[in-house]
């Protein structure tokens, strides 16, 4: 019993001596303490350009990410786009911004879903005639740049008999702003864009007076 105790004491003293004479790097490795995992954030304001859609761009505002769930809110507005589709959706006269949710699914990968509503400006109040759902995946290539790819799905919010795409039903009968269960989009359009963070830009400098 005493012999075993002496062995334990001697072993402990030996380990302490090893640490004091050689340093922590012997036990922990040269990378101690470890570098923290750097994660880029999408929180902030972005400008998104799709090269396949010249003359338009989208401004995206992303809220703070919930550290418990990795989710954040999004507000988007596309500028310069012809939402009537060159007359295919002729009853579109106005639209809302995009409203969305984003979820971090990887170190620099964020997936999102956004919805937008298109209206005919009837009186006494506008009528929602179409709506669209956009599903996308964004990959941050550096802290201020992201690449986004996704699919735009368009739905009919009222009946459109005799439409160019067929006799289209009301796909939101319960009027909750989302496709009813089992409804398929009438049209799907792939999109791809490059996003750049909008940071502080240099102000105009007035020329000195002569």
Overview of this protein structure:
It is a single chain. With 210 residues, the chain is mostly beta strands. The protein folds into 2 domains: 1-34; 44-197, Lipocalin. It is built from 2 helices and 11 strands, in the order H-H-E-E-E-E-E-E-E-E-E-E-E. It has helices spanning 2-22, 25-28, and strands spanning 44-49, 57-62, 71-79, 94-95, 98-106, 109-120, 127-142, 145-156, 160-163, 166-168, 187-197. The strands form 2 sheets. Strands 1-2-3-5-6-7-8-11 form an 8-stranded antiparallel β-barrel. The chain has a two-stranded antiparallel ribbon with strand order 9-10. A hairpin with a 2-residue loop joins strand 7 and strand 8 (145-156). The termini are far apart.
Question: Which labels suit this protein?
Answer:
210 residues; mainly beta; Lipocalin; two-stranded antiparallel sheet; 2 helices; 43% strand; globular
Question: Which helices and strands, and how do they pair?
Answer:
Elements lengths: L1 H21 L2 H4 L15 E6 L7 E6 L8 E9 L14 E2 L2 E9 L2 E12 L6 E16 L2 E12 L3 E4 L2 E3 L18 E11 L13
Subunit organisation of the chains: single chain
State the major sheet. 8 strands, antiparallel, barrel
Low-confidence stretches: 6-10, 15-28
Task: Please compute the radius of gyration using only Cα atoms.
Answer: 28 Å
The SS-based structural class is mainly beta
Order of helices and strands: HHEEEEEEEEEEE
CATH superfamily of the largest domain: Avidin-like
Sequence of strands across the biggest β-sheet: 1-2-3-5-6-7-8-11
Q: What CATH first level of the largest domain would be assigned?
A: Mainly Beta
**How many β-strand stretches?**
11
Count of the domains: 2
CATH fold node name of the largest domain: Lipocalin
Kindly estimate the percentage of residues that lie in beta strands according to DSSP.
35-45%
Helical residue percent band: 10-25%
Measured between the Cα atoms of the first and last residue, the distance is 98 Å
